[in-house]
Queue: 2 jobs
Job 1
Amino acid sequence: MRSSSLLAALLLLASPALAQSPTFGLGRAPSAEEVRAWDISIHPITGAELPPGSGTAVEGALIYRRQCARCHGGDGTEGRAPRLVKQDRPEGTHPWNLGRILPIRSPYAPVVWDYINRGMPLNREGTLTPDEVYALTALLLYWNGIIGEEEPMTHLTLPLVEMPNRDAWAPLPDWQPGQPRWQGYPY
Amino acid sequence: MASDRTDRRAFLKRGAALAGGLTLGGPVIGPTEASGQSAPSQSQELPDYSSPELVAYGQRSPYVTSVREPVNGRDSPDDFGLVFHIGTPLQDQIGAITPSSLHYFGTTRGSFVPIIDPAEHKLLIHGMVDRELIFTMDDLKRFPSVTRLHFIECAGNRSSPRHRTIVESHGMTSCAEWTGVLLRTLLEEAGVQQGGDWIIAEGVEEVKGTSSLPTAKAMDDIIVAYGMNGEPLRPQQGFPLRIVVPGFEGILSVKWLRRIKVVDQFYMTYNDYGHLRRDAADAALSYQIGPKSVITNPSGGQTLPGTGFYEVRGLAWSGGGRVSRVEASVDGGRTWFDADIRGTPQPMAHTAFSFNWTWDGSEAVLMSRTTDEIGQVQPTRDQVREHWGIPAGQPFSVTGQDNSIQPWRVERDGSVHNAIV
């Protein structure tokens, strides 16, 4: 450790610009602002990178009418774009079987926020403000019976929402090179 | 010289006139809808190969017309006019490498392809690292590089009785020679911290398409690629920068790469979300491509022009490493024999194979199966069904990535059909 940071320091001194990579002396350290501007990832469980903001389903319904209804339909069930509301199924149906729908299948609520923030609305991606994304997330969670209509979703409350499929998804294997895809499966 | 050129032009014009009514030369296996060789129409203007433009940058013959086609269940173009998955014409491919302009592609949001000035493009590496770093394209090209053959295959390549051609059944796999920096090299420069067991890779396109990958894979063989088949990446393949994740599901090979973040867990982000599974075996088998092969000639939609000798050709590959063996059958899997592997198999790369076959005019079912260097064997659909204890006759879908054997039935009239029932 010590010797590699020493090498880094030497290379820094030796190179003309702000070379930062310790072995090859290439690249530079980004500014905090550069990282902030690009880092739109959201930790699925803790929501660590969620920006401050707030919105309710009531507010979301107004935004939805303006931004979403043209493709997803008035109530999220009848548009040309994918359905946003769980299917009607008999009592006791496992929540996994209520449809391959973002706000039902997601094990964690911040995943819904991330998806809307990145991917919606079609052809105007990245134009929603954080508050609008919180409000639309709240609307989808309300429509799917997960939260109340007045319940504000914020960077603090969203990670606390208990999603119906939280424990239903299978973790991915601990991948290592040269191993079969699945122990006991010869194919 | 001048008269030579005139003669050649005159010849080309005569050729075009002939082509109106006749097939010139033609492939060994007769031209069909799915074939890549057909005569140019008379109205089509013939290229002038001595023009400054074509002297500067070449062009294929007007007699070679192989093109990609939209494929896969989703309507394409869909209700919003977007085209999602474009299959490569494997039946026309000669050898193991797919020409860049025919490489399959899929995009997260239709056929949207960003136009990126490489002089402005940067790659950020941050998250759980000792040193956050940002690189220009020029920086990246100064690093020690690797050049490797790798296939990329989409999870959408699945067997079905509905498929008519190999473009529909297998068109979303292609193989290219990729050049770039190993991601390991860059991550070692940044210094991955304890607990940084996953990375997320993000593109610059409109949805900032992002995938989660295990750091173990990143430290093994992921390439941050800027070169493809001897030239910069094509825009549909991620110009100016992408990752190539050898052997993993295609969507994980993020294009137009702008950012790598080292994180503590699977992030379930944009490209991951649709791939969550309930069943652990399904999740594991959906991740990495199994041992797989397919006969490309003859294949569905083609017609054998007559009895006699054919070199049957195909491709084999595996996400688990090198192809070590390819077997073939011409009697629907009752008997098998070794096919010839052409060239030296590379890890996670298409490997061409062939075998000699004399068709006697009776019905035949052609199949191939491959074994990879870690001993995984390509199964029939029946073997997969039996492994999971699914009763015969019940409709089922192969668990995880579908690597099942593709049978092609040659009928007495020479026509070739998908034999999956």
Job 2
Amino acid sequence: MTTRDTSPRRPYRDDPFLASPPPPAAPRRPFTRRRFLAGAGAAGAAVAAGTVLGHYLGGPGPTTAGLTVADAPLVLITLYGGNDGLNTVIPHADGTYTSIRPTLGYKPEQVLDLGEGLGLNPQLKGLHSLWQAGRLAVVRGVGYPNPNLSHFASMAIWQTANVTDGTGSGWLGRWLDRTASDGVFDPMLALSLGATLPPALRGEQRSATAITTSHLAIPGGAAFQSAFAALQTAGPDRTGLAGAVAASGADLLAARTDLDRLHQVAAAPSAGGSPAAVNGPTTTTGRPGATAPGPVPPPGRAGRAAGSLAAQMEMVAGLIRAGAPTRLYQVSLSSFDTHADEKANHERLLADLDTAVTALLQDLAGHPVVIMTYSEFGRRPAENASGGTDHGTAAPLFVIGDRVKGGRFYGDEPSLTSLDGNGNLLHTVDFRSVYATVLDRVLGSDPEPVLGGRFPTLPFL
Amino acid sequence: MVTSTRSDVALLYRRAGFGLRPAELDRISAGGYEAAVEQLIAGLGAAPDPGGDRLGPPRFTAGPFRPPGTAAPAAGTAAPAAGTAAPAAGTTAPAAGGRVAAVVAHNRAVARDLAGLQDWWMDRMIATSTPLREKLTLFWHGHFATGIPKVRDARLMYIQNQLFRTVGAGSFEGLTQAVAKDGAMMLWLDTSTDKKSHPNENFAREMMELFTLGIGNYTQADVTAGARGFTGWVYERSAYRYLFRPSQHDYGTKTYLAQTGDWNGEDVVHIAVTRPESARFVLARLWSHFAYPVQPSDRVVADLLPAYGPGMDITGALRALFLHPAFRSPASRGGLVKQPAEYLAGAARSLGLDATGARSPAATGGSGPSGPGTGVAGPSRSSRSLARMAAGLGQTLFDPPNVGGWGQNGYWLTTATSYLRLEIALALAHQGDLSPLAGLPTGQRITGVATLLGVDSWGPTTSAALARVASEPVALTALALTAPEYVLA
């Protein structure tokens, strides 16, 4: 089944940012603290001194690679359950593939050719276009030493970057800890879509903000709101788990403040967009719009479909286009644990992935972004008798974006004949090299202290 | 200040049940703590449940799920095993629109059935006279976590739920053997497709990792050998029954967890649950969910071993757990966050609501929703379902996030759940029976809301915050429901 955590398949409520129409033709200027405050002022918001947004006062800074960090947030797509790498990037020209996948295999004429005897699953048409446009990089054979075939152990290793036993803080949580080391922490810095938070985004001191809607209106009148705020303050009765309850409430209030201002900035004509940029009547998908800011919908109104990857991506697109100072978004897709009846189910999941990624890039229309996928493991090369595949090891992952050096492979394709003792692939790229590259060139952070070691970066960015 | 026995009994009923109303707490505390434990234990097994049984069985409209390519059974051949209402004729028969339309109609019917089943269980948690049995059923649902998306038949989820309810307090081996042949589990973890030509490892692995032994106590070779033992096990959806197909079973010799023989599936389960690591694994899971999270190596786990014994006695282990001094320790009192289903069932019990979020007919007190005092309108009726609220908070009953079930404590504490909890608390307080509070002078309401909700007392920070809204019972109750003292179990 799918792996621990996390927050797939949760209902997402109606969200004003989901209702964004295609962006204006003129490119928006990158978000800066200065512009944000001006926009907030124009919208009539009082800006309290010393808010967490002070973090952005200097505007975005360059990374070692020369990118402007706030320009290109990372959108991390977690694929829960173990995605079948061999039926995602398909070695169609390898005779061994054909023989070990008698029912699940794809024929050369079915795949979307990438060259080197490899092709994308036929459901990944949008990704194939991105490859042809040089915006999709495929990192092959990504894994780690001594692979663990448990969903939970393997996902823990991927999320902590601790290959010994998968314990400790999350790798992105440690990035957040370091970002917050100057004493200022912005709850908008990392957003995870869903009610619960993947361990990757939990640090020792700081964690990402989990949201199911981008419009966090605290209900009630002034007295009620101030009492709710008072409930979240520190005190002798706020230790241990009681302290954690209050801390999540305090983070909520901080994120609410920032999101409110973001709505106001995005709605203000002086901010470079028009009010319609947030409050427009329909989306590109024809979804009926919501007006913002409006009353909060009652809990749990939207159905499951609203928690789809596509819905998560719509919210991400709206936040990026509104100029959110967010540098990491985490979204997820579940049910990749295809032990039985894999073909149709896997194709449906890949189609969901393809549609959501394509839609995000269309909705962003030029706003830079780096998208990366990962899963806890690939699957066993040889199919089982249930029309499925069991737990495996190394697999390819995708890195997508305008600034990605795409249309190319990174890392070697694992051999289908030289396998480990369980009949699984031997990895050719350590996943921490991918993390190091992303930390250095997207998140603008020194990878070594975050990963606890030095790993060679890859030239896909 | 509460007396120690009263506080202990309140803790016991929060953990082993869904909390007590003030009058119930008075009555049960008067008998002492040990008697309260025995009363809860007496509600396990086959004991009658006047409160829960009054609800009757859930109703289902969808017929069995038929995988694509299988022929439709003739009308009337489906024979539900659970003794519930027969499928309504025609609900899943291929319609004029063909197979796609039939699938859409079936999915709709399953979604309706699921919603009904979720409401039914939430109502049972609220109304039950045997709360430990319902709490234990919820524990097993998280332990043997099985989800509707792959099972695609709410009736199968109900059959599994009844299994937990009826045999969940007996022998752990008996329960695990029954779960291994349970339809929902066999479909969820693919046992039903396990064939000798190339065994499917899904159930064999998770059975050891998550159900009986824990990670590190088996090898990949054990997974492969175990999977061979389950070959030939089939679940027949249309007849709701387990079958053994000898032609698909691998009768070869297998070495499984260091024992060699011609093991079948029952042998595999037996070997796993009788490993020395298993008892500690299972007891640590129980302790972690009823007291506070521990590892199998923890000393308190060893203390429960004699009660569990070679008979793998769940009832005995629970009694020893609740009577263990550490269960009532400060570490325990501050050591557990309520999971959403118990949070909501407990709040509904305190406020006289049913699973639809409406005022329960059984509840006494004022009529109709309390007047607004917060400036917030009440939610529409359709959004008041407690099961949907639990789903919003991350716990969809019959649809856990994965086979590992739900996490604990910090898992439930995010900005998103903080926000949703506030909205939900307002909805509950708006609809609930707050007459015990409204009748109190403002100065006594902060203590009064603690009594109403079964909280021992508020800390100074919480008291100061609640004092700001003490004049408005709805606002006071809503905020109290989000206070750390209430969010913790």
